[in-house]
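Help wanted!
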Amino acid sequence: MTIEVRYRFDLDTFQLDVNLELPGRGITSLFGPSGCGKTSLLRAIAGLDRHAAGYLRMGDLVWQDEDTFVPAHRRAVGYVFQEASLFEHLSVQGNLEYGLNRVPPSARSIPLERAIALLGIDPLLQRSPATLSGGERQRVAIARALAVSPRLLLMDEPLAAVDLERRQEILPWIETLHRELEIPIIHVSHSPEEVARLADHLVLMRAGRIAAAGDVHEIFTRLDLPLALDNEATSVIEATVSGHDEEYRLTRLDFDGGQFTIPRQPLAVGSPVRLRLAARDVSLTLQHQSGTSILNILPAAVEGISLDDEAQVTVRLLAGSVPILARITRKSAAELGLQPGMQVFAQAKSIALLH
Amino acid sequence: MFNEADLTALAITLKLAFVSTVVLLLLGTPLAWWLARTRWRYKFLLEAMIALPLVLPPTVLGFYLLLALGQNGPVGGLMTAMGGRPLAFTFTGLVIGSVVYSLPFVVQPLQDSFAAVGRRPLEVAATLRAGPVDRFFTVTVPLARAGFFSAAVLGFAHTLGEFGVVLMIGGNIPGETQVVSIAVYDHVESLQYAHAHWLSASLLLMSFLMLVAVYALNRRLRVVRA
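Answered by r_m:
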């Protein structure tokens, strides 16, 4: 199943013009600076803006074309707004049941108990929304959207309205949804950290247009896109826990390009994990270094080097089939004589475990 | 205390206020809803028209209504042509006059509370499978309940206090169009101060209690919302 999205309509200062085919599973992130049209696109997909002209097909259902406009309340979407926007006149339970009661029992694929359990909001059911913290409100809003058993879940910067600490409180719940539910999620964000944690598929937007779309690992490391050229550039790597070293309190992670060793994690062998490797924490050597304190050294092939006039350049490497970025000085790149195709060793100073 | 005519006037006043309030809510709700949501650039013209009774002398309003509802007026003429009788000097005429006269007191609180509810809760309800009518009754009405309460009480209380409009279009027909405010006037004219006192005090008390309810409820709702 795929989701076909084509829209062209005027926004305040520019035109939104997109033509996308999105995967029917996993999390797709619409990523771009504020005001680039991400939210307008999400609202159009939900059917919240009647003037948004375009075409929308969700699997075999056409929700919008030249002659059809299925209004928002007849589209099987769940929508999580930037502010939780709970109904203040209803209890948490009342909020959850509002949507549930409007879905015929035969169409309920997510039981209410499951939505409640997935977001851990059982203790809040009798409370009034006014008494909840920002993080709790947003979790209730997500559960409320799930309770209508949507075929597509839309989330508009679900973390933007909560502070940093609360974000850490919500993110694991969104990751749980991703693991436990089959429904595709389209998520809007302007935070690279959030996208690195959540996205499987990434759509980069700029001034109403699609700058690039594709697999998150690929888009983060493409040298022709701004993400890879920034000092904050990172690579996102999927790995599996392969064992623990109890003597030195370390955990070994296997991935397609080799093995990483990180401080001991409370994870079972076989667990899938996602890692983030900051490009500026990766250095390159021509020979395998011995006599270094760095544990994680991977053989890799240079695939490309950014054409930068600045002090720093980004080198894209392939470790096995996995793209990895290194942010080094242009001078070092010249002295090492880096060329596409060269074999080098990538030394990773630190690796962050995302989940 | 009250004589029979006074009691009749009191009953007519309450009936007039009640019927007018119901008509005002039925008419004012869609009007206020439209005013709160439209982007029509000339809506201020309509808003100014609705607010006119706030500043016009009631006799001026009553005079034009009398012309419209009377035998030779457009509305009265139509009624006569259809085999009815003109609406001037009837209870129905009084209701029409009261509705026009109290419209701003109903439309403005409703319009303000619809605007305060905003679009977002309705969009949320739409994504939770609620259609437009469902959304209005399950989201807008409960969230704007303070506005409905204020509108109903102000419309009712303001109709109780009507004098000029009623005098112009209702005349002063005891048992049909004589309301309390006019009965008080008659008593004073004929120096029956005791009767005037009883009627005036009952109207004063009723109006005061209703306003107390409006202000107390508004305060309570504000506290809840904070």
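OP: Thanks! One thing I noticed: The longest helix of chain A spans residues 164-180.
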